[in-house]
Write a structure and sequence with these properties.
With 429 residues, the protein is of the alpha/beta class. The chain is built from 11 helices and 22 strands. Helices cover 26% and strands 25% of the residues.
């Protein structure tokens, strides 16, 4: 099934897609004949959000329902270890893959996070969550949809999270209690002058994931809202949550928290040896929420012996068992033999009062192997490269200071709002 807005994209690759049936749905299909017809007309003819397409053999969603109504339904046979969802990975560091998530993965994951969210789910109170993440994203599916439906939470869906003024306007309609999102979303809200006047009296706190929550954003969030921005961690391959900071007030800013119940998380070296606390290496995990493997892919190297899933993220565990993300393994920059992680560079630059958004990558250099290039979206149009260089020299070691700076009006992002370093790397080749 595909939404008509994207059917033209499917048309271009149809011969490579082994689908037996294609069902095309429109935004107004379930709104009744009159309202639905008007909505579909406006979307296609007025707003022109549906490019022309000619998908041979495709049928409409309403036609599919009509045909199905004439058939006899028989209950399918499945068990907990059958695949429930083929979840596409983000593709931020490479080609997207299909993670095979089973019914057991989802059931166990929901039990874990239902327990974890208890401080934010007050008995007898109508909790309200705003969902600004698309429902096809694993976090929105598992947390905002499945968990919140199970817990009886009222869900307000935001159709365009990039429209920050529109989002703030919606936030003022209901006494929201929970927010979820990525760092760029929270940063965007904080930089909207109307956000500070929202009603935070019922607000428990916000959950940040999908990308590193920058310290400057988390600190300012708490100053403005009076409530914490709590960081968690997970992947499409793990349903998604592996770790999260406690929601009872004992969170630690700058960390991704501790493992979920029934979940083991550890740090490994490249040879599959588990490292001691305080040592930096690849974050690996095993638990009932971890996928069975990638669909129709060679899964060699995806797991270490013992069922340890390799996340591809570099991290470290402190003396109290809290984990901290260093960065994506594939994004590490080698400067004259030294390992430099973009997150560290971005975290420093993001704390500059004149910087709105930042991304750092490595670019080839004959002498150093690689040097750092920083892409900046300015909050203050008068910010200069000289200011940034001076700020970096005052706050980091010399070899970590970016060699190049480039100002941009915006940075490339996924539909969820994660900054696409990969796209910047491809541009800089």
């Amino acid at each position: 099934m595909i939404v008509a807005n994207f059917a033209h994209s499917l048309e271009t690759i149809r011969e490579h897609v082994p689908a037996k049936h294609i069902i095309v749905t429109q935004m107004g299909d379930l709104l009744g004949f009159v309202k639905g017809t008007i909505v579909n007309f406006v979307v296609k003819r007025v707003k022109k959000l549906v490019p022309d397409y000619h998908l041979k053999g495709a049928i409409s969603f309403k036609d599919a329902l009509s045909r199905g109504a004439r058939k006899k339904w028989s209950r399918p046979h499945f068990n907990l270890d059958d695949v429930a969802v083929l979840q596409s990975t983000g593709g931020t560091t490479g080609i997207s893959k299909g993670a095979q998530l089973t019914h057991r993965n989802f059931v166990c994951h929901n039990m874990m996070i239902r327990y974890w969210f208890q401080p934010f789910l007050v008995e007898g109170k109508q909790e309200i969550i705003y969902t600004a993440i698309p429902m096809y994203h694993i976090f929105a599916l598992s947390v905002n949809c499945i968990l919140m439906m199970h817990a009886g939470v009222r869900n307000v869906l935001i159709t365009n999270a990039r429209d920050i003024p529109g989002f703030v306007k919606e936030l003022k309609k209901y006494p929201f209690t929970i927010l979820t999102g990525v760092n760029t979303l929270y940063n965007g809200l904080l930089n909207n002058p109307e956000f500070a006047s929202c009603d935070f009296s019922a607000f428990h706190g916000a959950i940040g994931g999908g990308m590193a929550v920058q310290d400057a954003v988390a600190k300012r969030w708490e100053e403005v809202t009076g409530r914490p921005l709590i960081e968690g961690y997970g992947l499409s391959e793990t349903s998604p949550v592996l770790c999260c900071n406690p929601l009872d007030g004992s969170h630690r800013r700058g960390t991704i928290g501790i493992p979920m119940p029934s979940t083991e998380v550890a740090i490994f070296d490249d040879d599959g040896n588990q490292l001691a606390q305080g040592q930096t290496g690849e974050i690996c995990a095993r638990g009932p929420q971890v996928m069975k493997g990638y669909w129709e892919k060679d899964n060699e190297g995806v797991f270490f012996p013992g069922g340890w899933f390799r996340t591809g993220d570099i991290g470290v565990m402190d003396e109290d068992g809290f984990f901290r993300i260093v960065d994506r393994k594939k994004d590490m920059i080698k400067v004259s033999g030294f390992n430099v992680y973009p997150n560290e560079i971005e975290n420093v630059l993001a704390s500059h009062p004149k910087v709105l958004e930042v991304a750092a990558i490595g670019v080839a250099d004959e002498k150093s192997g690689e040097v750092i290039k920083a892409f900046i979206v300015r909050k203050d149009p008068f910010l200069t490269i000289e200011e940034l260089k001076s700020y970096c020299h005052s706050n980091m070691t010399n070899y970590k200071v970016p060699r190049y700076f480039e100002f941009r009006s915006e940075l490339p992002k996924t539909n969820v709002g994660k900054i696409l370093r990969r796209a910047l790397k491809e541009e800089s080749k």
